């Protein structure tokens, strides 16, 4: 089946099998390997991307379901400089091995956009429940999201 | 882990969904949010030969009010969309804000959750307590199924081959009423080990004049707790009668026993959560 989608502002058309998972479309077909596969069982969130502006686990979506959609992956988040969330993970040491980080950041960006700058620690922990980290113990991830939330402000 | 091969159809209207289902018969499965079906297909617990994707059917999304005042929610509406919609149904808002995780709430749909009827799913209990009805279209035409008739058994529903849940209807909660959902979740999966939903309405003197309580996660399928409901009638908020009513939560039930919790523990959770959820619903019924 032929699918076309816009990823990080660029349009791509590929011929795919219906059972191709979106995460493999992104990694293998488009060679955008920033999006990771951690569990492949919908639990860990390492594969989180933005699909039409919503954070989703791309290992639990078929590429054909995203036909015509707009996607953002971790590679497309930064503008001229790092996104405030990326900078905050850097500043607060919100990562160790870095495997969970792309997914954490993609989820956290949407979490902050949803709740705005006044996000409590509890809301951050609840909001990141679908992202597992085996290294950090989460403390610095929470601090990073708090920093970014203050900078990003807003909310809808 | 890859699912077995399948043919994929993306429908754009309800009629097209129905005719695709007719055409492919038993081989076809509906794909909604995919957050139960795709994991099952990856594990090859399900290997449908044909998937009919209803994700692009605009008519299956969103909110409207029907003639009797009920709120009608399209089957493809996601948990996040419901949580954000200000439906006036507290238990529904509550459950749609806590199910799964942030990403799951962006994909999971009300129609998919109820159709799947997982014994540990949250929504069935809330739909029972709020007296929801499912709008179904299929080869035999259109019908309305009350939630209690829709749930037939363990992962079994009243859906016949070729049927599509089009929408879910919730009657207005009404004045002096309140609802809530309380859950004890599996810390890894987030699914309910035990979940209880309640809806109550109070009369002019503040006593309970109507009440529905439903359990999920702790038995084979979600169900109403009638002995509790009956014992709640006429009770005053804060009275010992509420505790006594909650103590009836296990009556006539066969509790599940598995690696997550044994039946004795689930019975205990059911009692405790029933008491908490009743108190919360009553507080909201001002
Ligand atoms: C990590 C994770 C955590 C989760 N945690 C929870 C939780 O805490 N609580 C909870 O309740 N659920 C939980 N879920 C399940 C999730 O809510 C699913 O989205 C839901 O069970 C199914 O909805 P869906 O829209 O994804 O349906 P799908 O997976 O697309 O479909 C499920 C089944 O229903 C059928 N179906 C779908 N839509 C219709 C329709 N309109 N008419 C007829 N049949 C239909 C399909 O053919 C399929 O058999 C979790 C899932 C994941 C991956
Ligand atoms: S790889 Fe998708 S959730 Fe773990
Ligand atoms: S930094 Fe290693 S998994 Fe999170």
Can you offer a commentary on this structure?
The complex is a heterodimer of chains A (156) and B (286). Chain A is α+β, with helices and mostly antiparallel strands and 156 residues long. Chain A has helices at 22-29, 84-91, 101-115, 121-127, 139-152, and strands spanning 2-7, 10-15, 48-51, 54-57, 70-72. Chain A has two domains: 2-76, Beta-grasp domain (Ubiquitin-like (UB roll)), CATH 3.10.20; 84-152, Orthogonal Bundle (DNA polymerase, domain 1), CATH 1.10.150.120. Chain A has a five-stranded mixed β-sheet with strand order 2-1-5-3-4, with helices on one face. In chain A, strand 3 (48-51) and strand 4 (54-57) form a beta hairpin. The mean pLDDT of chain A is 96. In chain B, the strands form four sheets. Chain B has a five-stranded antiparallel β-sheet. The longest helix of chain B has 22 residues, at 263-284. Chain B is globular, with a radius of gyration of 19 Å. The N and C termini of chain B lie far apart (51 Å). The chains are: A alpha+beta (156), B alpha+beta (286). The A-B interface holds A 1, 17-19, 21, 40-43, 45, 48, 51, 54-57, 60-62, 64-65, 67, 107, 110-111, 127-131 and B 1-8, 10, 31, 34-35, 38-39, 42, 51, 53, 55, 80, 100-104, 106-107, 188-190.
